[in-house]
Amino acid sequence: MALTGIEIYKHLPKTNCKDCGFPTCLAFAMKVAVKQVGLDKCPHITPEASAALESASRPPIQLVTIGVGENEIKIGNETQLYRHEEKFHRPTAIAVRISDRAEDAAIAEQAKAIGTMVLERVGLRFKVNLIAVDNESGDAARFEKAVKLVAENSGMACVLMSAKADHLRRAAAAVSGQRPLLYITDPAQAETAARVAKDEKCPLAVRADGVEALAEVTGKIQAAGVEEIVLDPGTRTVKATVEALTMIRRLALKNFRPLGYPALAVTASLDPTMQAAEASIYVAKYAGIVITDAREPWQLLPIFTTRQDIYTDPQKPVAVEPKLYSVGAVGPDSPLLVTTNFSLSYYSVEGEVEASRVPAYILAVDTEGTSVLTAWASDKFNADTITKAMKKADVDSKIPHKTLVLPGFVAVLSAGVEDESGWKVQIGPKEASGIPTYLKKQQWKA
Ligand code: SF4
After folding, report:
1. C-alpha–C-alpha distance, residues 126 and 305, integer Å
2. C-alpha 22 – ligand 1 centre gap (Å)
3. Which residue spans within 263-335 are E strands per DSSP?
4. Which atom of ligand 1 is least distant from the CA of 23?
5. pLDDT (tens digit, 9 = 90+) per residue, 16-26?
6. Where do you find CATH 1.10.15.40 in the chain?
7. Distances from the Cα of 386 to the Cαs of 231, 251, 332, in angstroms?
8. Which of 25, 45, 108, 272 is 20 to 30 Å from the Cα of 145, by its Cα?
9. How many A from CA of 13 to the centre of ligand 1?
10. Contact 388, 367 (CB under 8 A)
């Protein structure tokens, strides 16, 4: 947790000598608290005070980096329990599990499919972040081969999962320099695995039987020279996992250093629908990584959607640029659909226009990223704002038929828009899903 100015002030010399460029030690402390100046600007601070302040101001949850280059994933460094206080910063990494018991060709095929899969939602593109190679075979050579196959065919960063520290060493050496996350699944081998992680310069995930046991083991791993640790509380039911993840986050934010690391969760259900549900729950409840067997697009999309919801800033609506968009090869006869610049509203309309295969213009009116009904209720989507947006986009010179389509829910605006803009207003469907039928039947030309 960030230190307050007063907490910082307590460690300063309190001589008000002004050598730091500030009139008093308190003024300096206030600037340090808001990160406008560094502690090093005070030449009189003692090494003990400096060390105490740096330790206290360290993020409560360690930053962990997995992978390198464009595959690099960072987790941790979160500072809050509730996202309305400050947005969550580092979205949960989704890791799809591949067993080393599968045939080589199947492993390569799965890795390629996961590495190339891109899912799109409201204009954003989502990809799986990691592949977790599971040493289910219990065989070191098999594990090493599977890890190589996955790395070569997916081009992604990996989590290497094994109960044996020496298997992790061999597999890590096979992808040396790629900084995989080593995940030791046998708590008894945690300290041996820590030596492997240190030698290979990799982060280490450690499993223990419960949160208390985790708190005991992290100190030993750190003493072995590994700073970047990921916690697995060993729970495999949804209730126990949510409780453990919540406890870890709460205690970490209270600066309980043994648990000041990101945590991972593993979905245990064999039911494909439940795998997606379970993963989504862990995304919502503080998991830094979720390892899952869910790999089909229909399973992954709800997980990504949950992650997108949790990791957006609740104080900032997700908005698109307010302007005139063209979908398809628009011409002088193309319809003009009016909506707001709330991302979900805009992309719902855009997706349905694309599906209709009828080229159309979409005017996204600036409503500060609020939806049609919310903007109408707060008077941000009215005859005046719509007409101003039309003028700004110069629709008069681009669309000679001078007819626009308003969302059905705001039909009440039609007379005002006609009066202010001089355009003819048609009332479109209430829901975006009605747009293809509406456009195909050319009702807008009526
Ligand atoms: S230089 Fe240090 S001791 Fe002097 S006023 Fe600034 S903070 Fe205080």
Report:
1. 9
2. 7
3. 263-266, 287-292, 324-327
4. 5
5. 999 999 999 99
6. 5-57
7. 52, 50, 20
8. 272
9. 7
10. no
- d(C-alpha 181, C-alpha 288), whole Å: 13
The boundaries of every CATH 3.20.20.20 domain in the chain are 64-311
Q: Which CATH class is domain 324-445?
A: alpha beta
Task: Convert the pLDDT of each residue in 339-355 to its tens digit.
Answer: 999 988 999 999 999 99
**Interatomic CA distance for residues 425 and 419, integer angstroms:** 10
d(CA 358, CA 354): 7
CA of 59 to the centre of ligand 1 (A): 25
Residues in a beta bridge with 232: 207
Tell me the percentage of the chain whose pLDDT exceeds 90: 83
pLDDT per residue over 221-254, tens digit each?
A: 999 999 999 999 999 999 999 999 999 999 999 9
Q: Position of tokens 């740096």?
A: 54
Which amino acid is located at 260 in the chain?
G
Enumerate residues lining ligand 1, CB below 6 A: 12-13, 15-20, 22, 25, 28, 42, 44
For residues 345 and 339, the answer to whether their CB atoms sit within 8 Å is: yes
CB 33 within 8 A of CB 58: no
Domain 64-311 part of CATH 3.20.20.20: yes
d(CA 94, CA 117): 13
Which residues belong to CATH 3.40.50.11600 in the chain? 324-445
Which of ligand 1's atoms lies nearest the C-alpha of 41?
A: 1
Per-residue pLDDT tens digits for 31-44: 888 777 888 899 99
Topology classification of domain 5-57: 3-methyladenine DNA Glycosylase II; Chain A, domain 3 (1.10.15)
pLDDT greater than 50 at residue 446: no
How many angstroms separate the alpha carbon of residue 42 from the centre of ligand 1?
Answer: 5
* Residue to mutate, 17, 36, 53, ligand 1, most ligand atoms under 8 Å from C-beta: 17
412 CB neighbour count, 10 Å cutoff: 11
Q: Which helix (H) or strand (E) holds 159?
A: strand 157-162
State if pTM tops 0.85. no
Q: Output the six-digit token pair for 65.
A: 């980096």
Tokens encoding 253: 């934010």
- Ligand 1 geometric centre to CA of 49 (Å): 13
pLDDT, tens only, 371-427: 999 999 999 999 999 999 999 999 999 999 999 999 999 999 999 999 999 999 999
